[in-house]
Amino acid sequence: MKVLMIVGTRPEAIKMIPVYRTLSAREDMTACLLLTGQHREMARSVLDLFGVNADIDLDLMEHGQTLLSLSARLTAGLSRVIVDEQPDVILVQGDTTSAMIGGMLGFYAGCRVGHIEAGLRTGNLASPFPEEFNRRVITLGAHWHFAPTAAAAENLRSEGITLNVHTVGNTVIDAALDMADQMTPGKAAMFDQLPFLDDSSGKSVLVTVHRRENIGTRMAGIAAAVGELATLHSSTHFVVPVHPNPAVGAVVRPILESLENVHLIAPLYYDQMIYMLSRAFLVLTDSGGIQEEAPSFNVPVLVLRNESERMEGVDAGCSRLVGTEPSCIVKEAQTLLSDPVAHAMMANSANPYGDGCASQKIAQILSGIE
């Protein structure tokens, strides 16, 4: 059985690599990893970190690309590959434009499409944009729905999707636990860049913001909240990897760059992000993947969004949806930074996103061909 695995962005690469490795080790499957180049360098860096080479690299990324132009190039490039490779199965991950176009074309070509991380929903097509739309489109044409949690599987069933819905856990936990066991040059470099991370007596807060719907006024409010918290907690270090999108830096740098205990740094490689999470006291983020990874390291998460498709963490008590209003962010963060009991309650919550065996479960299901 030939399986074409489509990856476009760094999060997709992180979550697809454990599945690719697992399928590649099986004698009954031939795994072909395709990199679209939607986020060229960030995705390639993850492949390099895990020692994986893409079998096909479309290298489609263009400076200033729009969703329209990217979708057109993806359609043309992936169409050629599907015709040439004739895969039996196409696997897509998550809710990116690469995943949506790949799933749609796979359906058109009569391939069985497997959707990894299926069933996430906010119920609002505008938030997150365009991810909520993308994942719903993939669901319509998918044969297998690999849900990361029971709640995600229930979302699918509530939409009338009842066949081939499998709750397998999230493959990001497979990747995170694997990377946590490795001491890489990237991790070692962080000792020099951020030496306070190795001080067990200090506190570090990781802050990541990048979502398209937050850029502008909302992101300015988030940055203002971080600035207020940094002023209130002068002995706490706030680490802010600045997303490569220039619009993000244009908002956060003027607000935060003058504060001594706020560290505006370049985007972290995956091994560095896992190291940062393992050392963090608290996470403030609008990212999806970090909401899933942080509980594996017993780190509370405040989600800087008004809606989230990952409410399992909120229900389990390891994350909290706080929105983007500065006063709310400051209030919730203050509680966790100042109250050891409140922090411990969140830090010790069970991780609802899996046990690190999701890739094996997916491989077993594919080998049975339902």
Describe this structure in words.
There is one protein chain. By secondary structure, this protein is of the alpha/beta class. The protein folds into 2 domains: 2-170 and 355-368, Rossmann fold; 184-347, Glycogen Phosphorylase B (Rossmann fold). Helices cover 47% and strands 15% of the residues. It is built from 16 helices and 13 strands. The chain has helices spanning 10-24, 40-49, 67-85, 97-108, 131-141, 150-158, 171-180, 185-193, 217-232, 246-256, 270-279, 289-293, 311-316, 326-338, 340-347, 358-368; strands spanning 2-7, 30-35, 56-57, 89-93, 112-116, 144-147, 165-167, 204-208, 237-241, 262-265, 282-285, 301-303, 319-321. The strands form 2 sheets. A 7-stranded parallel beta sheet has the order 3-2-1-4-5-6-7, with helices on both faces. Helix 1 crosses helix 16 (358-368).
Q: Roughly how much helix do the residues carry, as a percent range?
A: 40-55%
**Number of helical stretches of at least 4 residues:** 16
CATH class of the largest domain: Alpha Beta
Shape category:
globular
CATH architecture level-2 label of the largest domain: 3-Layer(aba) Sandwich
- Write down the secondary-structure element order: EHEHEHEHEHEHEHHEHEHEHEHEHEHHH
Largest sheet: 7 strands, parallel
Distance between the termini: 13 Å
| Low-pLDDT segments, ≥5 res | none
Instruction: Could you tell me the CATH topology label of the largest domain.
Output: Rossmann fold
- Mean pLDDT value: 94
Tell me the total number of β-strands.
13
- Strand portion, in percent? 5-15%
Structural class: alpha/beta
Overall tally of structural domains: 2
Radius of gyration: 20 Å
Multimeric state: single chain
Q: What is the strand arrangement across the widest sheet?
A: 3-2-1-4-5-6-7
